[in-house]
Automatic annotation (TrEMBL):
PANTHER family linked: DIGUANYLATE CYCLASE DGCM-RELATED, REGULATORY COMPONENTS OF SENSORY TRANSDUCTION SYSTEM
Transmembrane segments: none
SMART domains: GGDEF (SM00267)
Reactions performed catalytically: 2 GTP = 3',3'-c-di-GMP + 2 diphosphate
GO CC entries: plasma membrane
Enzyme class per UniProt: transferase
Annotated source species: Rugamonas aquatica
InterPro entries to which the protein is assigned, alphabetical: Diguanylate_Cyclase, GGDEF_dom, Nucleotide_cyclase, PAS, PAS-like_dom_sf, Rev_trsase/Diguanyl_cyclase
GO biological process, one term: cell adhesion involved in single-species biofilm formation
Protein name per Swiss-Prot or TrEMBL: diguanylate cyclase
Amino acid sequence: MMNPLNEAHRLHLLHSVLCTVNLGAIVLDNERRIVLWNSWMIKHSGLGHDKVIGADFFTVCPGLRGGRMEAAIQQALYNNFPSLLSQTLNKAPFALHASPVAAARNERIQQAVEVTPIAVEGAPRHCLIQISDVSIAVGREKLLREQAMVLRSQTFADGLTGIANRRHFDVAMEKEHRRAKRGGTPLSLLMIDIDHFKAYNDHYGHQKGDQCLIQVAAALAGMLKRPCDLMARYGGEEFAMILPETDVEQATVMAEAIRARAQELAIPHERNNAELRQVTVSIGIATQKVDTAVEIEALIGAADRALYLAKRNGRNRIESMLPA
């Protein structure tokens, strides 16, 4: 049977291991002096043994004094209590850099830090500070968050026009309807339809039809000035515009501006009425008054009926209707 290694060999082996592992390792004595500063720390801090061994930890790392790190070291040395610093609150506590270029830019390694008490036979307690580079994991998490945001935006955006889609409209309508009832404010809904759009598609082709939808949607959505307003593609050539805190008079002014803007685009439409021969829109307005709360279905139904009336009365016009 082999004899166990003597104390000196064990200490040498431990030091070799701590200098080889791919993480930062710092050991402090009970007076918070640095007794071990491994090769990983030398590489990423730029501080060699001659600058740190025997020095007070907070002289070497003054930026950590008085914060969470000092409290964790105190807990380890005097209360025998380990600590794991929250990566959310302490993303890069140590001035550690992946390269000299990163150091010049002051771009720190993202870190996970653990402070552990160490019992030393015949001597006061020491503590071990372990620092892991979690930059790749943090970067991956950031990428996943960004991808999730893109996916969410795609889920709520119309694939052709880029404006809000029907799902987004439904969510926004539910939210604004609740807000209007709770706050006692008016809520207006505009239903907007491109006149004779089927005839446009038949005459010019579906590619031109798609371009027409994109152009009209961009122009009308660009008229919205408030963050709470929303324009959505409701279906086919029909759009819906939610206007919170807007009464019927204000909604009518907005609708007229929309009708005029669509006409200003001067998109040729040979199959529209004989006078204009260009793309126009018809608009139906429904408004939930301050003192008359109605269901969402009633508001949408009234706007739809008003739109139908605008079409029946000649198109390129506006009609309004009170929700029942």
